Amino acid sequence: MKIYIDGKYFDKDDAKISVYDHGVLYGDGIFEGIRAYNGRIFRLDDHLQRLEESANAILLKLPLPIKEIEKAILETVRLNGLRDAYIRLVVTRGVGDLGLDMRKCKDGATLFIIADRIELYPEEFYVKGLTVITSTIRQKGLDQVTPGVKSLNYLANILARAEATAAGAQEAILLNATGHVSECSGDNLFYVKKGKIFTPPTSAGILVGVTRNVVMELCESKLGFKVLERNFPRYELYSADEVFLTGTGAEVIAAVKIDGRVIGKGVCGPMTKQLIKHFRDYANASGTPVYEAVKAK
Ligand code: PXG
User: Fold this and answer.
1) How many A from CA of 145 to the centre of ligand 1?
2) Active site residue 61
3) CA 2 / ligand 1 centre spacing (Å)
4) 123-283: CATH, from 3.10.290.10, 3.20.10.10, 3.40.50.1100, 3.40.50.300
5) Which residues line ligand 1 (CB under 6 A)?
6) 228 CA to middle of ligand 1, Å?
7) What is the per-residue pLDDT for 297?
8) What's the average pLDDT block by block, 10 residues per block, for the chain (297 residues)?
9) CA pair distance 289, 296, nearest whole angstrom
10) 243 near 255, Cβ under 8 Å?
11) CATH for the stretch 2-116
């Protein structure tokens, strides 16, 4: 495997960054998790836009123009000969000293790109659905570094996920400071009630997921499902007809048990099933070509 770090490619065992990098010392940086399907990078522009917005929010100057970052992503996937891939792009503040002062990171940001294979959940989970719990950990408030910034500070999410694992569940819901549902540790969340679809708004404190946006577009334009963004407590999930999660890793997947309550019929429901199918068809037929771009030159 070849990993990109600041313009050079390294074998996995040699792909290293400094222990003085503020990404390591403080989680001072941002990232994107991107998928490639069938030789095309899914919604690359959306991921790059979110990267730019996250960088801007944390006063981080990206080390390259976005077009160059895009080229580096394509090249990394190509070098690894992947058609279906999970791409992790990380930008850290770079090498500084042991203090918090970002001005000490004089050489600028560190950028690395890993292109690997992943399958987050085995196929049977897409049929049977996931078991989910509510975490004791609260979503960060909007007065803190907003959850909309995809920062390297994932400790709350990791601990929430560990609570899920300890309870025999696959995902954990984070409530926000007002007790409303925000999102899961690595996915956005939707529920279906009487044919309508509901999801927490940005103001609930969520990462505005690329998959969330795609699903909302598919619902409105292809499937004729109405999606309403509004705040709700977790009790609305218990009485929902269907609950599903969306994320780059998980794609679209049902949650059929939440905090011990069976949701709907306890299996992946009909609307979620349709969405999974449409999402997969769309993902496999769209995106930025990885290999054709080279041939065209
Ligand atoms: N919320 C959070 C907190 C996330 O981390 C999403 C929503 C979904 O966003 P996208 O843009 O992917 O639709 C994410 C992203 C993992 C893993 O291993 C998952 C994410 C990020 C990193 C790792 O499960 N999900």
Assistant:
1) 17
2) no
3) 24
4) 3.20.10.10
5) 33, 120, 157, 183, 186-188, 207, 209-212, 246-249
6) 21
7) 47
8) 97 98 98 97 98 98 98 98 97 97 97 91 94 98 92 97 98 98 98 98 98 97 96 98 97 98 97 97 96 65
9) 11
10) yes
11) 3.30.470.10
